[in-house]
Predict the 3D structure of the following.
Amino acid sequence: MNARLSDYDYELPRELIAKRPLQQREDARMMVLDRQDQTIQHRRFRELKTFLQPGDLVVLNDTRVLPARRFSDDGTIEFLFLKRLDAHRWKCFVKPGRKMRLGATTRIDDIALRVEEITADGERIVVFERDIDIYAGGSMPLPPYINRASDEEDATRYQTAFARSDGSVAAPTAGLHFTPEMLTQIPHTFVTLHVGPGTFLPVRSDNVAEHRMDPEYFSISPEAAERINTAQRLIAVGTTVVRTLESAAHAGGQMHVQEGDTNLFIYPPYNFRAVDALLTNFHLPRSTLVMLVSAFAGREFLLRAYAAAVRERYRFYSYGDCMLIL
């Protein structure tokens, strides 16, 4: 068991962080890992269907990213609105935090707000003086490592082509590579997991077993459950789908119609009950996402693959390339 945070670290040149999406979604490179043979291939995402077998089912997350990033009217404070608590109260991230201490005030759309509470994780609970449509003037909440303001291109490209269920503050990035045309060529179904603020929070304990995931809402429809239960092999598109399927799987991997919250934290060793193959992007070092993929691929094999990706100049993170783990 690899329980230390440093076990999931790797070196990444900053120039390999993808700041913009490729012109065509399906043009991403795809590293293919074979867990049985411990081999690595360098392919293109558009070749995905050549790795599918009869009876396979590709499972995707149809969550939709909300335009939850806002700025104060004077432009000095950035907000990422995470959750509406009641008519006038919201939970949010704030930058810079020193300007929004307890009791501090500012305005958005000329509506005053005040910091009512600061949580243990540094989130702010803010109270507006009256109702406000947060999303009407919002922009896409790009991850901090992209290090630029979002624009019109991001409104489309930091959203999967099949997004339909509002609720996320970050994209399920493995799904960003798919086009509507590709989906017509592969057997697939959709589940939902709304990506929450936990995706931005670092693992603070050196003992990874002490980390706790924030609850995130998920649902599996009757149609999806039926298709999942009759599939021969499940190919999860992204870590959010892995967490959904593994949270919902009963004995023998059977899936039931359900919805609720999950705080499932997957790290080595973990016995997967539902997922047979995984398509995923390249993730930040020391992140819960790297830990989940390490549990699926094997930590040493995964880190060897990441080292190869650096040598081969793959593009990393949300707008980057992907890997298929078989």
Notes: The radius of gyration is 20 Å. The domain at 5-65+142-325 is CATH 3.40.1780.10 (QueA-like).
